[in-house]
Design a protein that fits this description.
Elements: H1 2-18, H2 23-58
Helix pairs in contact: 1-2
Length: 69
């Protein structure tokens, strides 16, 4: 996950350096930062809640209660 963040950060810094004087470039950098932030939030959420969600599905019991006949 750290490698992903470093890669996104490098790409954003490169884009910002090349397009710093253009409004289109600034807008692109802003969108890139938003995408990077969303990716980090999703990754942290998945790491935080992943085991809990897995355990919920693992512990589901669909065995019918009572007599069938």
């Amino acid at each position: 996950m750290l490698a992903l963040f470093a890669t996104v950060s490098t790409v954003l810094h490169t884009a910002k350096a090349r397009l710093a004087n253009e409004e289109k470039g600034a807008t692109m950098v802003e969108y890139g930062l938003m995408v990077a932030l969303i990716a980090v939030v999703v990754a942290v959420g998945a790491l935080t809640l992943g085991e809990t969600v897995r355990d919920l599905f693992t512990n589901l019991d669909f065995t019918p209660e009572g007599n069938a006949g």
